[in-house]
Design a protein that fits this description.
By secondary structure, the protein is mostly beta strands. The protein has one helix and six strands, in the order αββββββ. Helices cover about 10% and strands about 40% of the residues. The longest helix is centred in the first third of the chain and has 9 residues.
Length: about 80
């Protein structure tokens, strides 16, 4: 997160915000089932947060517009 300049409070805003949406489920993830959540920070920054069912953050990133459509909610085919 530090390298990507993503703050802890931004992750919290995404996970707890009204725009939060699970856009992918990974029931057979390597260590534990997880999901990919798309949402906005208070400043309007779109982020993807992958977290497992124990609320452990796996990864956080800015969705690349070249790979995602519909404001980061659907991957281009």
């Amino acid at each position: 997160m530090t390298q990507r300049r993503i703050l802890d409070n931004e992750v919290q805003q995404v996970l707890l915000g009204p725009e939060a949406e699970v856009i992918a489920a990974y029931p057979h993830d390597k260590y534990s089932p997880s999901g990919l959540i798309c949402g906005l920070t208070a400043a309007g920054r779109m982020l993807h947060v992958q977290a497992n069912h124990a609320a452990v953050i796996v990864t956080v990133y800015d969705p690349d517009p070249a790979e995602w459509i519909d404001r980061g909610r659907r991957r281009k085919r």
